[in-house]
Amino acid sequence: MNILLLGSGGREHALAWKMAQSPKLSKLFIAPGNAGTAEIGENIPIKADDFESIGNFAIKNEVNLLVVGPEDPLVKGVSNYFSGNPELKHIPVIGPSQEGAELEGSKEFAKEFMKRHAIPTAGYLSVTKNNLSEGLSFLDELEAPYVLKADGLAAGKGVLILPNLDDAKRELQEMLEGKFGAASEKVVIEEFLRGIEMSAFVITDGESYKILPEAKDYKRIGEGDTGLNTGGMGCVSPVPFAGDDFLKKVEDQVIRPTVEGLKKDEINYNGFIFFGLMNVHGEPKVIEYNVRMGDPEAEVIMPRLKADMVEVFEAVSRKQLSTVNLEILPDTCVTVMLVSGGYPGSYAKGKKITHLKDTAESIIFHAGTKTENNIVYTNGGRVISISSLGATMSEALKKSYKNAEIIDFEGKNYRRDIGFDLQVYLK
Ligand code: AMP
Ligand code: GLY
C-alpha cells in the first residue's frame, strides 16, 4: 500500500518510523517532511495545506491512504476535499472531517460539544463584542487566575492565564479587538482548574475506539516548568500518577462519551483524538481536544505500540477497528527535545548537526531539520527528539540524556529535568 503522510515535525517522523515497520507498506511519501523522514520515505515539496497539489500527487502516484499529522489541514478540510472529489474519494483519510476538526479548531464548538454530551470540563462563557458586558460580569464572578482562550487556532498562543482581574478584563477587550486576529474575535472565558495535567489518546473509526498510551509533556522552556510555553520540550509515557482507577474514569466519563457524542451528532471522525486533561483531586476534566497525535507525544507513544500501524489505519478506514488487537509495551518511553538557542523566541536556522549517527539505545526523531548535500542542518525551533525505552523512567531518561550530549549543533538547548515532577509517584 502507498501512503502519503502530511506534516514535517517530530510527530510525523515518529508516525513514518512506525509505518515503515509494516510489511504492508510499499511506498511512503511525506509532504513536506524533514531530514529524518527522507531516510525512510520520499519527501515531496508540497505544503500540508496545498490540497490541490496533494490531490494531484495522490492520483499520479497511486496513493492508497492519506495520513494527516498536523491540525491545520484538518481544520481547513482536507478530509472533505478528498471525500468530495470523485477522483480522490476512494482514498481513505486518517484524520477527521472538517466538522470533527472543529473540536480543536473552535474552543466554543468543543465546549458546546462537551456540554451537550455531559463530558466534565471547566465552566465557561463564550464572548464576542456583542456580549462583552456579560463577559466582564462573568469574570467578576470567577476566582483568580482567569483563563481566556481565543476561539480559533492561534498557533498555540491563544490561551492567556491572568492572575489579576483588571488585566483579565483589559486582555479580554484586546483579544476581541483582534489581538490574535480573527482567532480571537470570539473568546472563551473559563474557570481555572487546579490539578496535574496529562493527556490521553485514542484512535477511532467513528464506531469503536482503541486507547493508546497516555503521556505527559513538558511545555515550558525552562527547568522546573518555568519560562515561556513551547511546542513541547519532552514527554513521558506512561504517566505514573494515572492509575487504573483514574484511567477508568477517563474512559467512562471522557473517552466513551466523546466517541458516542460524535456518532450522535453525525460527525464523521476517523483518526486520533487527543484529550488534554486535568486530574482534579482524582477526577478528570477536559482542558482541550486536539484532533491529531501530539508532538512530542507521538515520539513516546509510537515506540510503545506493538501493533502494525498500517494495519490499524487500514482497519480504521474500513470501520473494522474493533477487530484490531492494539497491544502496548509495558516499558516507559521518554523523549528529550533538542531545540535551537533562543527558541521559543527568535532563533537561527541552518546550523550543522553533528554526531547524529554516533548515538546508541535511543530512537532519534527529527523535528526541524533539512538535508543539503548529505549534511543535516537545523531548520526549526524544535530540532531533534531523542526517544528511549526503558524498564523504568530513569533508565529511559539516562539513555536519552547520554545522546542529548552526543548530538550537537551551535546553540543546542534542552531541558535536563524531564520527568522531574513524576519521581514522587514512582516511590
Ligand atoms: P489549551 O491550549 O486549551 O491546552 O491551553 C493551554 C494550557 O493552558 C493548558 O495546557 C493548561 O496548562 C492551561 N489551561 C488551559 N485551560 C485551563 C483551565 N481551565 N484551567 C487551568 N489551566 C488551563
Ligand atoms: N504537545 C502538545 C501538542 O501536540 O499539542
Structure notes:
There is one protein chain. This protein has 427 residues and is an alpha+beta fold. Among the domains are: 2-96, Rossmann fold (3-Layer(aba) Sandwich); 124-190, Dna Ligase, domain 1, CATH 3.30.1490. The protein is 29% helix and 26% strand. The chain is built from 13 helices and 21 strands. An eight-stranded antiparallel beta sheet has the order 16-15-10-11-14-17-21-18, with helices on both faces. A hairpin with a 4-residue loop joins strand 10 and strand 11. The longest helix has 21 residues, at 244-264. The protein is globular and about 60 Å long. The termini are far apart. It binds adenosine monophosphate and glycine. Adenosine monophosphate (AMP) binds at residues 122, 147, 149, 159, 190, 192-193, 197, 276, 287-288. Glycine (GLY) is lined by residues 217, 232, 290, 294-295, 297.
